[in-house]
Amino acid sequence: MRTLQAFVVVSLFFGGMFPGAIQAAYGEPESTISILSDLRVKIVDPQSAVVPGAEVVLLREGRGAPISVLAASATGQLSFRGLEPGKYSIRVLAAGFGVKEENLSIPQSEEVTVQLEVVSAVETVTVTAAGVPVPAKDSGAQVSALNASQLEGMQSVAAADALRFLPGAVVSTAGRRGGQSSLFVRGGDSRYNKVIVDGVPIDDPGGFFDFGVVPIAGAERIELARGAQSTLYGSEAMTSVVQVFTREGSTRVPELRLGADGGTFGTARGYASLAGARGPFDYDLFGQQATSNGQGVNDVYSSSSQGANVGVALNSRTSFRLRTRHANSFTGVPGEWNFGGKPVLPPDSDQYARQNQFLASAELSVAAPSGWQHRFSGYEYNNKRLNVDDVADRGCDVNTGNFFDCPFRNLEKINRAGFNYQGEYWARSWARSTFGYEFEDENATIQNEVVNGLRLNHALYGQEILTLGRVGLVGGARYVHNQTFGNKVVPRLGASLVVRHGGAIVSGTRLRFAYATGIRAPAFDESFATAFTRANLNLRAEENRSIEAGLQQGFWGGKYSVSANFFQNNFRRQIAFTCCDAKFLGQFVNLNRSLARGAEFELHAQLKNRLWMEAAYTNLSTKILDAPDAGPPFLPGEPLLRRPKHSGSLLLNYVGSRWGGNVGGSFVGRRPDSDFLFFPQGPLGINHAAGYARVDVGGWYQVHRRITAYVNVENALNKHYEEVVGYPALRANFRAGLRFRIGGE
User: What pLDDT is attached to residue 4?
Assistant: First the structure.
C-alpha cells in the first residue's frame, strides 16, 4: 500500500500544486496572438451520448507528424489551442468504436462534434492488444470484447458468466455459482492468462486466478486478447490477456442508477451507482450485493463489491485518476460428488471458501506537444483466500491412509504492488511508438504450506506500430529481470497485408502473421520452500513460442466479416513436481513440454442497424511431449486436460430504442479430464467429460424513459452437464428485475 500512497502524493504534488510548471515545460502558450485560433472538439456515440477518454490526433495538411495528441475529458470534450489558419484533420480513437476522421479548416471550423460509429470487430478500436487505442486490424493480435450494452443485457454476476461467450474462451467452473472458474485459451493452462482490472494485475504471481467470484459491477468494457502478450504485459500473459475497464462519469447532472432482481434457487441481487462530471472533476461510485442458495447441499453463495473511479483535470494537458475496488465472497464447497448424474459420493456438508479482494490504482497522464504522451501509474492489489473444512463427513482415517476428507484450514495472502511508466510518440501519422518501464513488488504467505515469499521485478519494453499503405507492422520486445528466474528478453512481431480493398460486396481481404513469446514466472509455492517441498530458486520461466497466421475477409462495406486463424503454441520448460528425497520432500523443476495447435473461425455480422451477431468455432489439438516424472493422466502422448477438440460460441445482441435482447451460446465438446480421486483405468475412474451446450437469453423493455424491466435465463435449455467432472452445473435458472435511472442527461 505504501507504493500507491507515495505515488498519489507525488502525482498530486507535481500535477496539482504546479500545473503552470507543467504547462511551461511543454510550451503551452499563456496568450496567443490574434491570428491564432482554438479548436474545440466534442466526441459522442451513435446515440449522441458523450464518449470520455477518446484519443484525438490533430494533423495539418502537408505535415507528416501530428501537431498534438489529446484525450477527451469526462464530458467528451477537448481543445487544441493556438492553431494557425489552414487545413487540418483529426483522427479519433475510442475503444469499442471505429476510427473516425474529419477534415476541417481553421478558422472556419473552430467547434466540431464528431459522432463515432459501431463497426465490425476487425475495424473496432481496442486497447489491450497494443497497450494503446488502435484498430484491431492493426494490433497484431486477435481481440474480442463485450461492450456496455452487452454487459447490461447479460446482467452477469461474475466475470466467468460473461467470458464464456467470447470467441476462443473455454470456461470451466467447478460446480455452480461461486465455484472455482478457470479460463483456457488456445490450449494453454488456466494459469496462462494475465488478468487486469483498471490497470491492476489481479492474478496471483504464477497465474492462478478464479473468475467465478470476481464481480464485474461498474464495468464499461471487457477485452480478451488471444495469443502470447508478454512483450507488453510480462509474466502470465502466455496465451491471453483479459482486461476490465470501469465506467467514467460524464453527465453534468449527477446520475443515480439502481436496480434489483431475484429468481430461482433463492437468487437475489441489488446494485446502485452514482456518476457525474462537474468542472474538472468526474466520478463514478458503484456497489453490488448478490446471494444464492444453490440447488443442493452446501451450495450457498454470496458476494458484495464496491468501487470508485474518480478523475480530475489538473489543466488542459494533465489529468489524474484514482480507481479502487473491493469485493468479498462466501462460497459453500460441496466438492466432487456427482459424476454424470451418478451421486457416487455425498456432497461435503461443511467446507467453505472466503475471498477478500482489494485493488487501487492511481494514474497521472500528461499530453505533450508534437505527439508525445506520458502516463505514470501506481497500483496495489491484496487478496486473502480462506478455505476451511472442519468435519470429516466423507471419511478420514490417517491410520489406514484415507486422507479423502480430512479437516484443514488454509489461508493465503497475496499482494502485488507496482509502478509503471508508459510513453507514446507519434513520429508520423503512420508511425507510433510505445515504450515503458515497470517495477513490481510481489509477495505471498500461504499458511497451510508454510510459504513466505518476496520478489522484486523490473522490466523495460518497447513497441513500434507502422501503417504503410497496405502493409501493417507491429514489432516489440520486453527485457525482464525477475528475482526468481533472472533476465529474459521477450520479442513480438506482427504483420498484415491488405491484398485487395474490394468494393461494395467484397470489401477487403487481409492476410496476417504473428510471432511472439510468452512467459510465466514460477508461483511462490513452486520457488520457495514449503512444508512439503524444497526450495528451487533457480527455476526458469515457463515459455510459449507462439506462431499464428490468418485471413480476414469483409463483405458489404464491412457489415460482415469472416476470419480464419491458425496457431501453434510450443510450451517449454513447464514446471513439474518431482518426488522425493530422503526426507520425503519433493521439488519443482523445469521438466515438461507440450504442444497446442489449432484453427479459429469467426463470423461478425451487423444484420440490421441495431442487431449484431458474433459466432466462433475453434478446432484444437494438444499433446504432452515430455513429462519424465508424470503418471496418468499426464503421460507423454496424452492430450492436455480440459482442452476440448471442438468448441464454439454465439452472441446475438439487439439494442432498440425501447427494448432489446441477447442470446449467448457456449458449445464445448468432449474433452479429457480426471476426477483425481480414483485411478483413471479403475471401475470408478473418470478420464473425460462429456460435451455440452449452454444457452443464456435475456431481454429488457423500457417501461418509462427512466424505468426498465428485464429478465435473464441462464442454461435456458435446462441441460445436465459438468464443466469439471464431478461438479454438476446449475440447472435452468432465471432472474427478473427492474432498474431505475434518476438524474443524468
Answer: 56
